[in-house]
Structure formats: C-alpha cells, structure tokens
Amino acid sequence: MGKTAQLALSVQLPDDEIFDSYLSESNSAVVSQLSLFVENTLLPNSKQPNCFYLFGLTGVGKSHLLHSASAYASQLGKTSVCLSCAELLQLSVEVLDGLELIDFICLDDIQLIANNELWQQAIFDLYNRVLEQNNSLLISGDQSAVQLGLTLPDLVSRLSWGLTEQLKPLNDNEKISALQYRASKRGLMLSDDAATFLLNRLSRAMTNLIDSLDVLDKASIREQRKITIPFIKDILNIA
Q1: What is the CATH number of domain 172-236?
Q2: What is the overall mean pLDDT for the chain?
Q3: What global pTM score does this model have?
Q4: Digit-coded pLDDT (tens) for 147-206
Q5: CATH 1.10.8.60: which residues of the chain?
Q6: pLDDT digits (tens, 9 = 90+) for 199-230
Q7: 228: left (phi > 0), else alpha (psi -120 to 50), else beta?
Q8: Sheet arrangement for strand 104-108
Q9: Residue by residue, what is the 3-state secondary structure of the chain?
Q10: How far apart are CA 158 and CA 223, in angstroms?
Q11: For the residues 46-74, what does the mean pLDDT come to?
C-alpha cells in the first residue's frame, strides 16, 4: 500500500464502542450473529459467506457495531481496519490498494457512494480481491442493498450475496441506558431524570446524544460540577 493508504488506515477506534456496550435488547440477536461472524473468520475452512451487510436507519448504532467488530477481530489476533466512506470519499480510490490483505475489513456508510461510480467500482473490485484472499468484509448502510441507490448492479449483487441483517431503532429506555453507560465510562453519574431530559430536549439520534454528552463531560471537568438538569440547560443552552 502507498503512503496515502498507510495514513488513511491509521484509525483509532473509540475504546468504549465494543459489543458489550451496545445496549439494545431488540438487536441482541443481530449482535450475537455479528460476533459469530467475526469469530468464524478464525476458522481456516469456514463455510460462512465472506461478507456481512448491516443496515438500519441513522442513529441505530451501525458505526458502534462496526467499531466493535473491528476491535473484536483484533482481540482475536486478526488484522483489522474500520473505515468510513465519508472519509474515503476525500481520498483517491488508490487508498484501497492492498486492503484485501487485511483479515477483517469494515466499511461504514456505503450509501454515501451512491452517486459516485468511481468509488462503487473501486469497492466492487475490493470485494472481489477480498474473496480471492478468503478474508472478510463487514459493510454498513442506511437501507437494504437494493434500496441504496447504487448504480453499479454488480456491487448491489455482491452486497446481497452474504449475510444481511437489519438493526431496529433503539427505544427510549435503551437510549437512556446507553447514555448512562457512556457517562459511567467517563466517570460521570447521569441520573434517570437528567438522561430523560437530554432525550426529550435534543435530537434523539444517538450520535447527537453522545456528542452532547462529550460536551457536558468536558464542561463538568472544567467547572467541577455534576451533570444536573440546570447544568445541562446552562451548558447546552436549552430550556
């Protein structure tokens, strides 16, 4: 791989995004299947498909699970990388050269290349090279493969070949539990009332809720205050 690829592959995974921290009872079967998919990459004669396509609406935790799978593959002794299509689109397609030599590859948000024929062809070619190497791909998108709007039929076909699972939206209780778990990992105590207040006053997408928690975490350290509802109102400027 060239220098550009090496730079792009230096990705630091969030240390709190692991399978155990994905708190969703309604998606537990999907998480179990995904975990088994990672484990089966260790088996030299595994009969499982090489690709797992995971889809769901924005905010259901697809990126979290891709980070989790990549971290788990590394934990099991496999080479692994997790890349976002949002970042890949800023680079040359040559960044994918040699990527097939990595045991476990995660590509997040494939819907972002729907209007880019060059990148669709590049990922299709990568998929074929991964198959030749008998390595594994985990890909996420916001719709089923046939609904992504991809203009390269062969890529749609490839995504449909392997395992496919859909994540269900998290309910309010699951979002509150996830927020409280993230807070505890930062050494913070987020009460039920405070978590519910965040859920009712902000966008319900988990990415936005976690971003707000990060802001509150830094402010709490800076001002040496607990995260209470008045503190949340003050820092996030919400009523």
Answers
A1: 1.10.8.60
A2: 88
A3: 0.83
A4: 999 999 999 999 998 999 999 988 889 889 888 888 888 888 899 999 999 989 887 778
A5: 172-236
A6: 898 877 787 888 898 899 899 889 888 899 99
A7: beta
A8: 80-84, 104-108, 136-141, 51-55, 163-166
A9: CCHHHHHHCCCCCCCCCCHHHCCCHHHHHHHHHHHHHHHHCCCCCCCCCCEEEEECCCCCCHHHHHHHHHHHHHHCCCCEEEEEHHHHCCCCHHHHCCHHHCCEEEEECHHHHCCCHHHHHHHHHHHHHHHHHCCEEEEEECCCHHHCCCCCHHHHHHHHHCEEEECCCCCHHHHHHHHHHHHHHCCCCCCHHHHHHHHHHCCCCHHHHHHHHHHHHHHHHHHCCCCCHHHHHHHHCCC
A10: 52
A11: 91
The domain made up of 3-166 is a member of CATH 3.40.50.300: yes
- All CATH 3.40.50.300 domain ranges of the chain, comma separated, are 3-166
